Amino acid sequence: MSDRSAGRPRVAVYPGSFDPVTNGHVDIIERGARIFDLIVVAILVNAEKSPLFTMQERVEMARDVFGHRANVEVDTFDGLLVDYVARRQAQVIVRGLRAVSDFEVEFQMALMNRRLDPAIETVFMMPAEQYTYISSRLIKEVSALGGRVSGLVPETVEQRLRAKHR
Ligand code: PNS
């Protein structure tokens, strides 16, 4: 395994659709920010054909939540994740693992990414227990049907969800 990190700041990329960012994501990012010199929240362009939030909205929400943190950056990416990670001169991909059900797909992605670029390591982090059942998909569904999602997403996201479904 080659080492791209010698003497460099430890940079991690936390990729995802973030449609929208949830408190589970926030928890992982805060944990990552304690470990790495910089954690880049990398929002995938065109993750879904019809996301609820536009790219700009997703970026704005993430920046609202993390703007005050010196070592958290919000960016967008397109194409292969490993190419983006290399462009950012990062060494690590961070992914959250909520339950065993996440494992299979995450395992496949981590090994594929390793095959594509053996210099990049995937690090899995577990969110706090109270967030283990949250997903962006469930948040959107509950909110669209008029359910309360407070405490599960940041305030700014809750407001924007309400505005979308008004
Ligand atoms: O939040 P998500 O939808 O679980 O994130 C999935 C994501 C963005 C990490 C994944 O779809 C991805 O990395 N897409 C970029 C294209 C790519 O590199 N595909 C091969 C991954 S093995």
What would you say this structure looks like, in words?
- With 166 residues, this protein is of the alpha/beta class.
- It is 41% helix and 17% strand.
- The chain is built from 6 helices and 5 strands.
- A 5-stranded parallel beta sheet has the order 3-2-1-4-5, with helices on both faces.
- Helix 4 (100-116) links the parallel strand 4 (92-96) and strand 5 (121-125).
- The chain is globular, with a radius of gyration of 16 Å.
- 32% of the residues are buried.
- The mean pLDDT is 94.
- 4'-phosphopantetheine (PNS) is lined by residues 15-17, 44, 47, 80-81, 109, 112-113.
Q: What is the quaternary state of this protein?
A: single chain
**Content of β-strand:** 15-25%
Report the C-alpha radius of gyration, rounded.
16 Å
Alpha-carbon distance between the two ends: 52 Å
List the uncertain runs: none
Bound molecules: 4'-phosphopantetheine
Number of strands: 5
Helix segment count?
Answer: 6
Q: What is the approximate shape?
A: globular
